[in-house]
Design a protein that fits this description.
CATH superfamily of the largest domain: 2,3-Dihydroxybiphenyl 1,2-Dioxygenase, domain 1
Strand content: 25-35%
Shape: elongated
Mean pLDDT: 92
Number of helices: 2
CATH architecture of the largest domain: Roll
Low-confidence stretches: none
Order of helices and strands: EHEEEEHEEE
Radius of gyration: 17 Å
CATH class of the largest domain: Alpha Beta
Distance between the termini: 23 Å
CATH topology of the largest domain: 2,3-Dihydroxybiphenyl 1,2-Dioxygenase, domain 1
Structural class: alpha/beta
Length: 144
Amino acid sequence: MAKMNPYLNFDGNAEEAFNFYKSVFGGEFLAVHRMSGAPGGEQLPEQERNRVMHISLPIDEHTILMASDIIPSAGHVLNAGNNVQLSLHPSSREEADHLFNGLSAGGTIEMPLQDTFWGAYFGSFKDKYGIHWMVNYDHTQQGK
């Protein structure tokens, strides 16, 4: 079975965002590569050379959060919006609270964490970097 790793794009603040995510999830970066290290990177405008070409942070043994910065001089345009949502499935209410409160800091809460009709403790928000998140603790999984 294939693994799926969420991949995010940023406009020059991928490293800042990932340092924030690391402060919530913990762990260490597997990789941080700069545009300057890519073939032809020396030809990029000075302000783009230090942008992140690739960064990755393990979230657990199955998931790695990955990202890069766009390159405006190559015609890249970031269209931040709700076209990407990351769904987190913690193993306890306490972990749900920790993830929700940590990641939503400075962002916009769309639905506060609450018990839902589908039997979950659920909430959603847009973080301070424009990334949409959902936290869904399934009560039926408790004790399993």
